Structure formats: structure tokens, C-alpha cells
Amino acid sequence: MKLLIIEDETELSAVIDSYLSKNGYICEQVTNLTEAMEKVAIYNYDLLLLDIGLPDGNGLELMKAIKKVHAKTGVIILSAKNSLDDKVTGLDLGADDYMTKPFQLSELNSRIKAVLRRHHFEGSSKLQFNEFTLDTESKTASVKTNTLSLTRKEYDLLLFFLVNKNRVLTKEVIAEHLWGDHIDAADNFDFIYTHINNLRKKIVKEGGTDYVKTIYGMGYKFTDL
After folding, report:
1. 2-120 sits in which CATH class?
2. What's the fold here for domain 126-222?
3. I need a labelling partner for 177 at 20 to 30 A (CA). Which of 47, 136, 186, 203 fits?
4. pLDDT band at 20 (very low <50, low <70, confident <90, very high)
């Protein structure tokens, strides 16, 4: 899952990034409203960690923009203000949760998981599709009763396909979502084919159906249609 940390306290942002990255998230950081607006206009994120008090504006302005364009993107507001008005306004604009600084990173992680479950997994920690079951808590995947022995990137790739089933995903979108926007500088995206090919082989080996369809000239689609 891909997160954008919008926080002008660079030390706090770095601590959050380090903690969440160790827990398997792809994290990117920005320090002001302008950069945040540019990021969400170009890239898709599963969740935003949004500070309200940014140096060039109120983070709530981003709330109005993100919910119009990416309704499924989760938002947790982070603020030094313990203002009821700010909390109510943020929630009314579509924020999923609100945390007042300082907070425990373990609690932040728990709230992130809860928001992602609501947005992508219908409130459950497990995602099921035909013979596939993915457990987002243990980060494991199985086909029927057989556990898939996946690398971390292969698991993330399968999860990304399942969350976006029946949608065509370009190699660029897959690379950017699983490795972050710095991957845009890559000369090519041939490594995506390697990861997809390895995933397909492991699925078939365990008796599963290869639902990954190559859409020539466009990308890939995970579908049983």
C-alpha cells in the first residue's frame, strides 16, 4: 500500500516514514501544500497522512480536492491542534480519522490498517477472490488451501492486482505504485515483466488460475471475465 506523508516537521516525517516503511508501506514525503497538490494530481495513493498546519496553507484545502478526484483515497489528519472545530471540519470534508500530536507510531499504524480495511477490504483484514485469499495482517497469500511462497514485492503485486481487478494497469502505474514515484527515472520497466512472470508461475504451481491477462500495448489486467 502506498502512502503520502504531508508534514512540514521534517524530523517527524522521517520518523513516520521509517516506521511505516519497516511495516511494509511504500511512503513518500512532502512538506507543504503546494507539493502535496502536485503529487495527488499526478499519482494515486491508498492513504494520505495530512498535517493541517502547513507553511503555505491549510491542509484542509487538500481534503476538498482529493475527495473530488480520488474518493477511495483514505485520509488521516495529523495536527498539533486539539480543536474540535478543526476535527469536525476535517471529518465533514471526508477525512477518515484525526490524530493529535504527539501520538504513538503503533497507534498510527493501527488506525492506518483500519482505514485501509474500510476502503479496500470491506472492513476485513482478508481479501478474497475466487480461489485466492490474502491476509493483509500477516501479509500472506494462498490459493485454495495452498500457501503461496511469495517475495514481498510479489505479494504487493498480487494485492495491487486484486484491489484493482478488471482494470488495465500499465507497467508505469505498477512500478510507481510498488516502488514509489522515483521509479519514473528508470530507463525501462522490463523488471515488471519478470515479477509478473514469477508470480504467475507460483500461482499455477500451487493449482491456481493465472488471471493476469496481458493487454498488448497497454499493460496488464487481473480478471476472470
Report:
1. alpha beta
2. Arc Repressor Mutant, subunit A (1.10.10)
3. 203
4. very high
Domain boundaries in the chain? 2-120, 126-222
Q: Tens digit of pLDDT for each residue in 116-162?
A: 988 877 777 888 999 999 998 888 999 998 999 999 999 999 999 99
User: pLDDT per residue over 51-104, tens digit each?
Assistant: 988 999 888 888 888 877 777 789 999 987 767 777 788 888 889 999 988 899
Which cell goes with 31?
Answer: 512538506
| Cα gap 97→192, rounded to integer Å | 34
Q: Are 48 and 40 in contact (CB under 8 A)?
A: yes
DSSP conformation letters of 167-225: SEE-HHHHHHHHH-GGGGG-S--HHHHHHHHHHHHHHHHTT----EEEETTTEEEE---
User: What cell numbers appear for 114 in the block?
Assistant: 483500519
